[in-house]
UniProtKB/TrEMBL annotation:
Record's keyword annotation contains Cytoplasm: no
Family statement drawn from the similarity comment of this UniProt entry: Belongs to the trans-sulfuration enzymes family.
Cofactor(s) required, per the database record: pyridoxal 5'-phosphate
Keywords for this protein: Pyridoxal phosphate
The name this protein goes by in its record: Cystathionine gamma-synthase family protein
Length: 414
């Protein structure tokens, strides 16, 4: 495989490890469990610590197995560099921990994963001002900006109501104002969408979800796309400015979020995620196709009050999603009509598993208001449009006919 030739998404990921020497001709980067790395020349050790040459310092800041995964994610996102973390929340938390200071201001989409919402509340309690805006319209984001705004944070497709952010226009706004644009790409994955195309400077992926894809490893990542001018960011410490400006952001993130905060990915998890990533495109195509089929079936059923999925023509951002994404993703949510108990419905499913993960090979279902969004309270849920009967579905790669039968049969008893 030649590095000069341009290959497709899956071919690139499958053969990426082999672009650098691997011990004993292994096709996968082996699991390196050592937490420390020795050098025959002490001067070289010092040079690695000072960032003058590549190398590994200590397991908290990376190792060969994790580095191989980071390179894989960088290629997926067409980025410049990637840092991996213990979880997706660790990656988002790294942005707060390493880049923001008391008195800073951020604008976040009001349609957020529950834990991200909780993190921003924590940030607000520590002196970072957080404004929430309906990111489906760039005008709302623009109205929320202040002179102290350091970054804008959005998800591509919101979890669980599937609102689609006005990504291209928000990206243009951030470019004009010199603001860091951070996009959580978890719901779409790098196969369906690359946030770099809309000007995102940092891209978040919860590797636990579709990229790993098998529910057997936690992980998260931040990718620098090269689209943001870090010399415009006011919070870079002087000692990281010894590097070229393009490297400032990731140098500070690696030091502050991995070295200091310690949200490090384990090598065993990195290996699981790297192997799972090889089939990302195949799984996303199948899961997205399944999700569209089940969403259409439910929307046509009179016992269903609403279905929220960007692939449906009835979705408010259907046209926007069609323009942005290769497909509409594997996640949707729906509400049953009054009189149909959501718990009873879920218990009648044979294939849909009541569980809190998403992006798995198996179809997972969860009653949103009573579980992952319970802690935020009824008022906040209502402001996000989350009904008490809302069921989130992360569609897997099962045979489509079997899923359609399962979700329809569970309705038939109602």
């Amino acid at each position: 495989m030649s590095e000069k030739k341009s290959y497709g998404f899956t071919t690139t990921i499958l053969h990426n490890d082999r672009q650098k020497p691997i011990e004993h001709g292994s096709l996968h980067k082996p699991i390196h469990t050592s937490v420390t790395f020795g050098y025959n020349d002490a001067r070289q050790l010092a040079s690695v610590f000072q960032g003058k040459e590549p190398g590994f310092r200590y397991g908290r800041q990376g190792n060969p197995t994790i580095s191989a995964l980071e390179d894989k994610i960088t290629k997926m996102e067409d980025g410049v560099s990637t840092l991996c973390f213990a979880t997706g929340m660790g990656a988002i938390g790294a942005v707060f921990q390493a880049l923001l200071r008391a008195g800073d201001h951020i604008v976040s989409s009001s349609f957020l994963f529950g834990n991200t919402n909780s993190l921003w509340q924590t940030a607000a309690g520590q002196g970072v001002d957080v404004a929430f805006a309906d990111a489906t319209d760039v005008a709302n984001v623009e109205a929320a900006l202040t002179p102290a705004t350091r970054l804008v944070f959005v998800e591509t497709i919101a979890n669980p109501r599937t609102q689609v952010a006005d990504l291209a226009r928000i990206g243009q706004l951030c470019k004009e104002r010199g603001i860091l644009f951070v996009v959580d790409n978890t719901m779409t994955s790098p196969y369906l969408f690359r946030p770099k195309t809309v000007g995102a400077g940092l891209v978040v992926n919860a590797l636990t979800k579709s990229i790993g894809g098998h529910g057997n490893a936690l992980g998260g990542s931040l990718t620098d796309t090269g689209m943001y001018d870090w010399s415009a960011f006011p919070n870079i410490a002087a000692n990281y400015k010894r590097n070229p400006p393009a490297q400032w952001g990731m140098a500070q993130l690696r030091a502050k979020a991995l070295r200091d905060f310690g949200a490090s990915l384990a090598p065993e998890a990195a290996h699981h995620i790297a192997v799972g990533a090889e089939t990302l495109a195949l799984r996303m195509e199948r899961a997205s196709s399944n999700a569209l089929a089940v969403a259409r079936m439910l929307e046509a059923d009179e016992r269903v009050a609403a279905v929220h999925y960007p692939g449906l023509a009835s979705h408010p951002q259907h046209a926007l999603a069609t323009d942005l994404f290769k497909a509409y993703g594997s996640l949707f949510s729906f509400e049953l009509k009054d009189g149909i108990d959501c718990f009873d419905y879920l218990n009648r499913l044979k294939l849909g598993i009541s569980a809190s993960n998403l992006g798995d090979t198996r179809t997972l279902v969860i009653p949103v208001s009573h579980t992952i969004f319970y802690e935020m309270g009824a008022e906040r849920r209502a402001s996000m449009g989350i009904a008490e009967s809302l069921i989130r579905v992360s569609v897997g790669i099962e045979d489509s006919a079997d899923l359609l039968d399962d979700f329809q049969s569970a309705l038939a008893v109602a």
